[in-house]
Amino acid sequence: MNDLLLEATDISKAFGGLKALSNVNVSQRRGELLGMIGPNGSGKSTFVNVISGTLKPDSGEILLDGANIARRPQHVVARAGIARTFQAVKIFDNLTVLENVLAGALGHSSMGTKEVDEAREALARVGLTADLEQRAGALGLYDRRRLEFASRLISRPKLLMLDEPVGGLNPEEIRAMIGLIQSLREECGIFIIEHTMKVITSLADRVVVLVNGKKLVDDSPQTVLRHREVIDIYLGTGDA
Ligand SMILES: Nc1ncnc2c1ncn2[C@@H]1O[C@H](COP(=O)(O)OP(=O)(O)OP(=O)(O)O)[C@@H](O)[C@H]1O
Ligand SMILES: [Mg+2]
């Protein structure tokens, strides 16, 4: 069996004259939690957009579990097993909590008992105890994030890509989110973009650093955080 869950090779993406990603290579082993850091505008979200099929790369190959998913439409990539969350939470405010989770169930147009049970189970996995019939727009930020997670987990992804999952959360919520992400490792591969170093050092087995769309380093969190340029970038901007 292939040891690699994700193998992205030579990924490039430009927006007009701006090279958002230049020949980026990222691989993720099965069972490994991979972190990605980098200054604002360094191409992190673009990387997730390209891997998850939201954007097509200009060049490069992407294998998920050995299957080629590069340049496939987003719904095909989702069915292949990649789920992602957004830097700014994307849920349907006017739908209920239950309807939001059901909306993430790929290929299920019905709302049978089986789907509702799966939705309840996904909500239990993220610890969201809100009333199923509550309007999602009424939830606070942490609950909105957890709801977004549940709506992805119901599709049983092989790889869950999280784009800054603790942005805007308070310290207590950040601790809870770290515990939640840790618990999700048992069910799928996790890729996480974060600016909060505590999240990276608590969770990531390996960290990729992007700077100006290029990979600067790819190593253990301890080694990456001792890297001279990384120190300059993070201490220099106060981002850490
Ligand atoms: N759809 C788009 N059209 C044009 N330019 C874009 C688009 N998406 C991203 N960019 C540009 O590409 C560069 C990389 O953006 P990206 O959002 O990937 O950065 P990021 O590392 O996620 O930053 P942040 O930490 O602020 O979230 C930026 O200069 C951004 O303005
Ligand atoms: Mg981003």
Please explain how this structure is put together.
The protein has a six-stranded mixed β-sheet with strand order 6-7-8-3-9-10. The protein has a four-stranded antiparallel β-sheet with strand order 2-1-4-5, covered by helices on one side. It has nine helices and ten strands. It is globular and about 50 Å long. The longest helix is centred in the C-terminal third of the chain and has 14 residues, at 171-184. The protein has a domain at 1-81 and 189-240: P-loop containing nucleotide triphosphate hydrolases (Rossmann fold). The protein is an alpha/beta fold and 240 residues long. Helices cover 35% and strands 26% of the residues. It has helices at 44-51, 74-80, 97-103, 113-125, 141-153, 171-184, 197-203, 221-225, 228-237, and strands spanning 4-15, 18-29, 33-37, 59-64, 67-68, 82-84, 159-163, 189-193, 206-211, 214-219. The mean pLDDT is 93. Helix 3 (97-103) runs parallel beside helix 5 and helix 4 (113-125) packs across helix 5 (141-153). Residues 15, 18, 20, 38, 40-46, 87 line the site of adenosine-5'-triphosphate.
